Amino acid sequence: MGDRPKGAWDNARYGDLETRRSSVCETLIMNGAADGRIGTVLHAADLHLGAPLQSLGNQLDQRTADRVRHHATRAYENLVDLAIDEGVEVVVLAGDVYDHAERDVAAQVRFTRGLRRLTEQGIAVFIAHGNHDPLIRNLKLAAQLPEHVTVFEPGDPQTHTVTLRDDATLHVTGVSFGKVHEEANLAERFHQLDTPASHTVGVLHTNVGSQTGHGNYAPCTVEDLIRAPIGYWALGHIHKREVRPIESGRWWAYPGNLQGRSAKTSECGPKGALVVPVLADGFGEPEFRACAEVRFERIDVDVSESPDLSSAIDAAAAAVPEPEGTELIVVARIRLVGRSDANRQLISAGATRLLTLVQEALDDDDHRVAMKVEIATRRAIERSVLLARGDILAEALRRIDSLEGQPETMLEVHLKPNIARLLEELQAGDDTIGRQLVERAEQQLIEHLDEDL
Question: Which of 65, 224, 236, 406 is the most buried (most CB within 10 A)?
């Protein structure tokens, strides 16, 4: 991606400003001719500026960790570039612009510089704050926001009007959190609006349907969204992208967070924003655009065909995908699975040593990084053979089978020291972790009770 300009337009890199504006106008005209749009909205949420990416832990070498963190900060600059490249009239940011309520000073400065670039292009910006960055009293900012940037206040929704092409109007209405733990159903407050749904954007940080894995802040139902005269609900809070139609010309959508922060399922995959066409009679289907320069992935690597440790390492390194499009770095959490002759060697090496070996195999590639390696392999022998034996190991496996479908019980009985953390992950919606841990415990049991196999 290279370095981006900070604040002022960089003619040397991007060309003369007037020429650029003419090019954008041509793009707008072409888009309008192609799909009948009268304007364009860019919808982003959960920027979490200032997030430290602590999920990288201390397993990566300092150079690699610093490089990943640097590229992770670039997502916001890419969002600004995207808005300018697409020629949008409106940018809406649906909460959690900052990662903490106290708002990192450097993040504030970067944020304001980006906003200035947008407003210099005549783009109107609307911001709703969420649970990570509520509009608390006595808040002192380190950088003042430029003109033409609207911050929604807590309380009742506030509505503003933007003029689009051919003197068409777009209404943007929204509300911010005034505290971290917002329990009220804020979506209900939009029901009394008197603006036309066909040309109204609603900006809200909320948990639709009380989805697990995220705090249940400002919870509402899909029915609450449908009842409000909103044509496009620009939502924030849920980090996994979701776009849902309501009826012709009406949508509600989460763009997901702008930059993934860990290998948690909702944080993985391409991250960015949604480009939303405004049509004469409603809103067109939102289109995803990647902005993140770091992409987290969870990868299962089947090493069933790997006869030894070295070949398993090669298989793991080969499974880390090359980045595509915007992403410059793929950071992978790797889980080794399958019945393999290398099982004992993998267990003997241990996860920490395996991570070092996989990363060494990737050292010539600055665009692929392994952040963690898990061992979930099994011995090459079939489990049915072990069950057919009339010994203590067979009886132990049958006891495990009796708990099928009850991973919480299995964890409670056999993994007491870590039960609080594990149950928290189960309740957060990661429904695979229980089964994975049971399988891991089973493999350790086999190793201890069947040393001579």
Answer: 236
Distance CA 164, CA 369 (A): 44
For residue 25, the enclosing domain spans 11-290
Beta partners for 329?
294
| Number of domains observed in the structure of the chain | 3
Q: Do 432 and 308 fall into the same domain?
A: no
Q: Are 413 and 356 part of one and the same domain?
A: no
Task: Enter the tokens of residue 199.
Answer: 């040309």
Residue 391 CA to residue 358 CA, distance in Å, equals 38
Same domain, 401 and 297: no
Write out 274-315 in H/E/C secondary structure: EEEEEECCEECCCEEEECCCEEEEEEEEECCCCCCHHHHHHH
Distance between CA atoms of 256 and 44, rounded to whole angstroms?
8
Q: Residue 367 domain-assigned? A: yes
What radius of gyration, in Å, describes the C-alpha atoms of the chain?
25
Q: Is 291 within 8 Å of 328 (Cβ atoms)?
A: no
Please name the residue that has the structure tokens 């900070």: 6
Structure tokens, 182: 């917002």
Name the stretches of the chain with pLDDT < 70: 1-34, 57, 101-102, 137-140, 212-213, 381-383, 385-386, 393, 397, 403-453
Please indicate, yes or no, if residue 6 is contained in any of the structural domains: no
Q: Are residues 286 and 407 in the same domain?
A: no
Tokens of residue 147, six digits: 């003109």
Structural domain contains residue 54: yes
